[in-house]
Amino acid sequence: MGPGFYPHNSIFEVMMATGLVGLVCFGNWLYNVFKAARKIINQSQFAWTLYLLIQYFILGLTSYSVFTNSYFWYFSAIVIWLGQKTKKNA
Fold first, then answer.
1. Whether the model pTM is above 0.90
2. Is residue 20, in this structure, part of any structural domain at all?
3. Tens digit of each residue's pLDDT, the chain (90 residues)
């Protein structure tokens, strides 16, 4: 693919750009994000971050390059941080 083009699927894009090692790392990141999301899902004051993450995740699966979708990375990092914060307070 030429510059500026991407496969319109984040999973395939990660696999194509970084290989199996990158796909495993990306899968691990997603696993940690959704594990943290399960911890904070019942806390209504943090629910907005999950809604934004889900929005950018679904949109990013088909519409944006995973590497340039900065909002997905920001919100997923916030969710992981809130999940760790929730674990410490529990």
1. no
2. yes
3. 556 666 677 888 889 889 999 999 999 999 999 888 888 877 767 777 778 777 777 777 777 777 877 888 888 898 889 888 876 665
